[in-house]
Amino acid sequence: MQRRMLSREDEAAAEKGDLEVRREDQDKINKFSRLHQREMLLEDDLKSRAKEKEDLEEVSNELELADEDEKVPYKLGDAFIMLPLPEVQQLLSKSTEKIESSVSATEEKLGDIREEMNSLKVDLYARFGKSINLET
């Protein structure tokens, strides 16, 4: 990635605060803002999935103490169904695997977004210097 430097005229104009915002600059600022919003949503999603995974693991640990012959309530949608313990443990492990794969996909998206945001930061800071604040 190549970093552009401000010309002396642009640097002087930026310090005075009269640097003209071009259409492409505004597009980059808008794109950075959208990416930042998406980043925040994905981070919230990761937190909720981590909590959900933690809850499933806790339930799995509790079920290890139950009798093998016992039927255990398992939540499907809004209803609870009585199922044999081994089947419930299998369903819980599948749910945990789904969450783990979803978390890894979300983390990958988050990495791509952060990479693109860093690229935009370089471009915008090169153009505006201290006149713009993109720290999140």
Task: Summarize model confidence as the mean pLDDT.
Answer: 88
Radius of gyration: 25 Å
Large-scale geometry: rod-shaped
**Overall helicity:** 55-70%
* Multimer state: single chain
Largest sheet, order of strands side by side? 1-2
Number of β-strand runs: 2
End-to-end distance: 21 Å
Describe the structure in your own words.
It contains 3 helices and 2 strands, in the order H-H-E-E-H. It has helices at residues 8-16, 23-63, 85-128; strands spanning 71-76, 79-84. A two-stranded antiparallel sheet has the order 1-2. Strand 1 and strand 2 (79-84) form a beta hairpin. Helix 2 (23-63) packs antiparallel against helix 3 (85-128).
Give short descriptive properties of this protein.
136 residues, mainly alpha, two-stranded antiparallel sheet, 9% strand
List the helices and strands and how they pair.
Elements: H1 8-16, H2 23-63, E1 71-76, E2 79-84, H3 85-128
Helix pairs in contact: 2-3
Brief rundown of the structure:
By secondary structure, this protein is mainly alpha-helical. The chain has three helices and two strands, in the order H-H-E-E-H.
